[in-house]
Write a structure and sequence with these properties.
117 residues, alpha+beta, three-stranded antiparallel sheet, two-stranded antiparallel sheet, 24% strand, elongated
Length: 117
């Protein structure tokens, strides 16, 4: 029992470190992809690939560019220098120990805003 608690706590801790790092990676890519129409799709793919060990089907990632009226996936000139590139992601906590879910509605989340270069 104690070992199970330690193991699940370690997994939750690792997940809480991986998610923000992956989101930062995607935000940096979006910030440096000025003028690229598929910048958001590439940044979202970067977050998913950088989130090592997390289930892709449970990972929810979104991107947007502040100051742009178009959807992020429809960007052309919308990701202009000086606007903010915003990435966010959520991932469910998994704190089931011996069949008891100690945090049934827990979700880890991270968001990063980078200035477009």
């Amino acid at each position: 029992m104690v070992l199970s608690v330690i193991f699940m706590g370690a997994i939750a801790f690792i997940t809480s470190r991986v998610l923000p790092a992956a989101v930062r990676t995607g935000a940096r890519q979006l910030a440096f992809s000025r003028g690229v129409p598929t910048a958001c799709d590439g940044a979202i793919a970067r977050v998913r690939s950088a989130a090592a060990g997390l289930s892709d089907s449970q990972l929810t990632v979104s991107a947007q560019v502040a100051g742009s009226s178009s959807k992020c996936s429809d960007l052309g000139a919308g990701n202009e220098q000086g606007n903010d590139a915003e990435m966010s992601a959520t991932y469910p906590c998994d704190l089931v120990i011996l069949g008891i879910d100690f945090a049934p509605s827990c979700k880890l989340s991270s968001s990063v805003t980078e200035r477009i270069e």
